[in-house]
Each structure stands twice: as structure tokens, then as C-alpha cells.
Design a protein that fits this description.
DNA-binding; 330 residues; 11 helices; transcription; 41% helix
Amino acid sequence: MIMRRCYDRARKPGKEVRLGEGEGRPAGPAQGRRRLSIRQLDAFHAAAQTGSVTEAAKLLGVSQPGISRLIASLEWGLGLALFERRRKRLFLTPEGRLFMEELERTSLGLDRLERAANDIKQLKRGHLRIASLPALSLSVVPEALARFLQAYPDLKVSASVQPSQQVVDSVAARHVDVGIAQPTGARSEVRAVATFGADCVCALPPDHRLLRQDVVRPEDLAGEALIALPPHTPAGRGIDRAFEGVGLLLSPNVETFISMTACALVAEGVGIALVDPFTAAAFGDRRIATRPFLPSVKFDVQIVVHESGAVSRPAAEFVRILQECFSKTI
């Protein structure tokens, strides 16, 4: 501990005092000081709590001379006398009490940081931002979010519904952590972590004659009122090719970008639609019915994240749950 006799013995004429050896009086600012060390602060804190070099040494598992050297180097580095020695006991000086108060406030801040790090590790703190194309916003994504929030109820979630190109743009701009979209072409800022493929289905009113068939083909739809996705969408292009393959021209009565709108129109008896199976399943058998459509028209979906690879823990866990939901649905 810092004892005046220790300092007096250390100061000999012509001897240079070096920081860290417990030498020199803590009077006035020292030139070229080193930064405070955790060991110095631990030694100071233990001595202040116990009032004894011996007890501080026992508390920290350090030798008594080691405790004295650490506190001496701390006092010299600070340019402050932190302790007084009376009757083999250590007492904080007024400056020592002020320093102790600041150290305890700092310790509380470090405790908060440690708790925050633990919360982050256990997914009790954080913010998950996702964006999904409309077709997945009624079935797979809500199911995955429900499972995610059941497991991690303290996390904040922001979910938006956007066209596939906007989903990819949002991921590229880091506005969202995870995107669910149809393939839109290669983009350097974005990478796909998983791709799932499903076949489009024929959505029919519950009492339609084509429900007597096991499969619906393009020629079966001649003369029917058709609701179709635009030809510039991936599914729309596939449907056009399916009709062209048998020499038919697709001429829809209604064209809509969103599959849920197409299914809602089917439920109202407006016509027949070729849509992704996820949206059709969300409407249920009582509102619409479905049959497989041949030739197959693929509806591919990708889970995309930023190319940097710096995926947050909440995002990584949500992707895992989302993949499980996709695998179960397809």
C-alpha cells in the first residue's frame, strides 16, 4: 500500500523514478504517464474496501508487495495521494474518496455493458427488419415471425410488404436485414442464402366444373374468364410460355400484380387465376379451390441478405426458422 516510509526509502539522490515500480511521491502531474490498468484499479478498490494491504492481497490473490506496488504506481501516475496510513490501517484521502466514487460509477457502467452484451447474445435485445414480397406475406412469413417472436419475445420486429425488386433494393441499401423475394437478377450488394421453388396452381371458385379434373392444362381454360399476373413478372412470363407451348395466346380478362388480389377476385366469382401456391393456401378451401397446373410454371423464392456477410444474430435465427417453414410448406 502507499506508505510514506515506502516512498522515502525509494527516493535516493540521483536515482530516477520510473513509473510502475511503486517509487516516487504522488505530488503533481507526471510527464509521459501510462494509461490506468485494470490491475491498478482492482488493487485500489480492494484496499479501499478492506482498509488493509493484507486483506486486499487475500481478496485478489496477490502478494502484499504486489498490492503496494500497484497502488503506488497508480498514485504516481495520477499525481494524487489516495490513502493515508494510520495504525496499520489504510484510510482514503478526500481525493481518494472522490476517485473511489468515480470508479464505482464506472463499474456500474461496465456492469450495464456486460448485461447488455449478455442480452444481445441471448437475443433479448435487438431489432429485426424484414421485407417480403406480397405472395409470402399471408402464410409462410407470418408463421415464421410467430415462431420467432414466441422464442424471442423481447426483440423488436419491423416487417414490410414490397414488390420483389424493392425488397432487393431495401436489402442492398441496408434498410432491412432479411428480404424474401423472387429472383430479380444478380446484384453485387446482395446474396441469396436459400432458394425455394414451388409450382403455380390453378385457383378456381369452389363450385367450378374444372374441379372434377385432377390437373388443369392451358387448353382447359379456353373460353374461361382469366385473371393473370403481368407478363413482366417471373410467374407471368412462365404462364405466357405455358400457353404459347400449346399454340394458345393468353388473353386475360383481368391483370393484377398481386396474387392475393387475384385470389380475392376468384373468391368473388370473377374468373380463374394461375397463382403461387402460398397465396392460394392462405385463402383456404372454403373461398377458393386449387388444382395443379401443367405444364409446370415455377414460382421461385429467395431469402436474401447483404453481401457483406455481417448478419445479425436475430436475422440469422429468423432465416433458420423461415427455412424450416418453407421446407414444411413446399
